[in-house]
Specification:
The protein is an alpha/beta fold. The protein is about 35% helix and about 15% strand. The strands form three sheets. Strands 5-4-3-6-7-12-8 form a seven-stranded mixed beta sheet, sandwiched between helices. The protein has a three-stranded antiparallel beta sheet with strand order 9-11-10.
Length: about 325
């Protein structure tokens, strides 16, 4: 935000960094380190008494390898929990067919579009990695010279081809990111919008973005879009929910890498009340429940108790509190 409360203009070449974790600025050298800042890694260098440390590493200052490992552990812990507890789990093309309409251009508002559009230049070629059915591809095509839509799902590519049939500057590529070698597509900007939440190999994903474009842009929410209500989850399954990584974890990784990144955020739009049956159906898949099961019955009761309104309606909370656009120059 600018001092007067307005949004700052998002530009790739004039706006200053939000955070810069470069080693030269933050290297502590050999100093007396308080207990809370001592390394979590027992193999870290010390003088035998724990007093003099070199480049201390702790929870708030992970190195890159620790940050990537922690990100992967969150994804794997989530997958293990959902795989173990879910009564009914839609995956792959089955999941995408059931929800492809919500990924089509114009169906849902792109809350962060203003910040993405501010980065687009008429002469640019953009890579849209995990383009889905074209939510970003179609509006980007009106602002840049070329859009290379990268999508590995046949279900999504079919919808994408339909949405872009009259757009000559859009190319659709069947490719799972990252490419196996340097022969993949190149552009001025690489965009990854809401595709990093379950990336177990985040390091190779980001490395390829930087290798194939001058600027990397990520659209990411404060939580993964399918995140359930943690309290309802725990009541249903008897254990705490293990969330997927999202914005804060990505920022920790970028900080550990020393990337000079910039960020703009956008609050989530309010959700209008929906009929009880509709809201219950929308929530069921987030918990992996089978329709009509005992847990499904309890979920309905919990939704009524927490979010019920007169007239058998549900005033559900937004699926995220806010969303962010994060970008940085390739190293």
């Amino acid at each position: 935000m600018s001092p007067d409360g307005g949004h700052m203009a998002a530009t790739r070449d004039t706006a200053g960094p939000i955070l810069d974790y470069s080693e030269s600025e933050y290297d502590t050298g050999s100093v007396e380190v308080p207990a809370f800042a001592r390394p979590l890694d027992e193999s870290a260098t010390h003088d035998g008494r724990g007093a003099a440390m070199t480049r201390p590493t702790h929870a708030l200052r992970p190195d890159a390898s620790a940050a990537f490992a922690a990100y992967r552990e969150m994804v794997e812990a989530h997958r293990e929990q959902v795989g173990r507890l879910a009564e009914e789990l839609q995956q792959g093309d089955e999941f995408l067919r059931a929800r492809v309409n919500s990924f089509r251009p114009g169906v849902l508002e792109i809350e962060e579009w203003e910040h993405v559009a501010a980065l687009a230049r008429p002469e640019d070629a953009w890579l849209d990695i995990g383009a889905g059915a074209g939510r970003f591809v179609v509006p980007l095509s009106a602002r840049v010279a070329r859009v290379i839509a990268i999508e590995s799902s046949a279900v999504m590519r079919e919808a994408l081809a339909e949405a872009t049939s009259d757009l000559p500057n859009v190319d659709i590529l069947d490719l799972r990111w990252p490419p196996r070698d340097d022969a993949g597509p190149r552009g001025n900007v690489a965009l990854a919008a809401n595709v990093l939440y379950d990336a177990t190999e985040l390091e190779s994903f980001l490395e390829a973005m930087e290798r194939h474009a001058d600027t990397s842009v990520v659209v990411v929410s404060d939580r993964a879009p399918r995140t359930p209500d943690p309290e309802i989850w725990e009541a249903l399954f008897g254990e705490a929910y293990r969330p997927l990584p999202a914005l804060r974890e990505l920022l920790a990784v970028l900080g550990a890498l020393g990337r000079r990144f910039e960020m703009r955020t956008e609050p989530a739009a309010p959700v209008p009340p929906v009929p009880l049956d509709v809201g219950h159906r929308q929530m069921r898949w987030r918990y992996g429940l089978a329709e009509g099961s005992e847990r499904d019955r309890r979920l309905r009761e919990s939704l009524i108790e927490r979010y019920g309104t007169p007239g058998e309606m549900l005033a559900l909370p937004p699926r995220r509190a806010f969303t962010a656009v994060v970008w940085w120059q390739s190293s």
